[in-house]
């Protein structure tokens, strides 16, 4: 029995592979294109572990995916592979359409071909778990209830629109061809191996480097935050016990305004690695031009996952964010390595034109 994980060298995918192999003996084939966001260093502790096979390749490569499915007699696919950063999707949507829409479509086609050739037991036991985001539901007003699985899709960014398209394709392959799929829509993750273009790791690094902590607009945009290892446990639970064809929202019940998140980070850093001048890192907070079309609020109702599959997050925001800051302080070599090269040109592109 083998699992095919796509995008398993990225932030959530690599946490998932590491946690999976820490808890199961079932092998993992890890298919990742190694874009700027994919980093084999995340998986360094698996070197020499025969249960992990890394393959550099594209989910849109139908022939490669079909070969892997057959060669390793895959019994489930967990699809993390995607372009994932909203700001990049605003600067250049094309890659998002390529991977999130066309890539997902070709992945589905390869899976359909493989699955169609399995015997009845193989067919009914097979699963495709598609990992998606709460951003497909659009933006909430302050008084709105959190997103339920039944909410209408109203994606507002090229990123969320491309993820919505892939969710729809996954749904259609179940309804039309009977493919045994599961979809999870999760809120904002944070934790180890988070690429430092996203708010939390970016602010930790900028704080330590004495740089501005860029807050888009008024900083009152709200996100629900989930510690990445809780997302991984939710995926394991849905894969094991989720009802075929169903969608499960995953969230941490942790709604926070961006400014509050950054202030919490500063307070933990003040305690663990105080600034040389004794002032708070919060002094580095700088308001910059807002993101175009910035969604105001996301919030997740994860009640279905708790009621039907008994899943709950293990970490509160307070415990998870402290672990995260500690991880970044202890893993500065990892950060320095991912911040070389392409990352610097992204910083120039995204922040140079934002007025402070
Ligand atoms: P990430 O950008 O850190 O990692 C994506 C990985 O996919 C990288 O390793 C990259 O090399 C790989 N990849 C990209 N295009 C590929 C392709 N065509 N073929 C094969 N591999 C490819 O993203 P992440 O934050 O780990 O997110 C993983 C998944 O979870 C995504 O589908 C994302 O939409 C979803 N998600 C993310 C969050 C979040 O807060 N980060 C929240 C909810 C859902
Ligand atoms: P991000 O980590 O990019 O995740 P997402 O856009 O998928 O929610 O951003 C989280 C929030 O932080 C979002 O409201 C945008 C905001 N943000 C900033 O205020 N400054 C920044 O430099 C970045 C990267 C994000």
From TrEMBL:
Write one Gene Ontology MF term.
Answer: dTDP-glucose 4,6-dehydratase activity
| UniProt xrefs under PROSITE patterns | ADH_SHORT
Keywords for this protein: Lyase, NAD
Q: Which co-factors does it depend on?
A: NAD(+)
Q: List, alphabetically, the Pfam families matched.
A: GDP_Man_Dehyd
Q: Catalyses which reaction?
A: dTDP-alpha-D-glucose = dTDP-4-dehydro-6-deoxy-alpha-D-glucose + H2O
Keyword set includes Lyase: yes
Q: Name one GO biological process term.
A: nucleotide-sugar metabolic process
**Which InterPro entries does the annotation name?**
dTDP_Gluc_deHydtase, NAD(P)-bd_dom, NAD(P)-bd_dom_sf, Sc_DH/Rdtase_CS
> Which Enzyme Commission number(s) are listed?
4.2.1.46
Q: Any idea where the NAD(P)-binding domain is?
A: 4-324
Gene3D superfamilies in the cross-refs: NAD(P)-binding Rossmann-like Domain, UDP-galactose 4-epimerase, domain 1
Q: Where do the coiled-coil regions begin and end?
A: none
Q: Which domain of life is it from?
A: Bacteria
Q: Which family does it belong to?
A: Belongs to the NAD(P)-dependent epimerase/dehydratase family. dTDP-glucose dehydratase subfamily.
Entries under PANTHER family matching the protein = DTDP-D-GLUCOSE 4,6-DEHYDRATASE-RELATED (PTHR43000)
Which protein is depicted? dTDP-glucose 4,6-dehydratase
Q: From which organism does this entry originate?
A: Methylomonas koyamae
Q: What is the lineage of its organism?
A: Bacteria, Pseudomonadati, Pseudomonadota, Gammaproteobacteria, Methylococcales
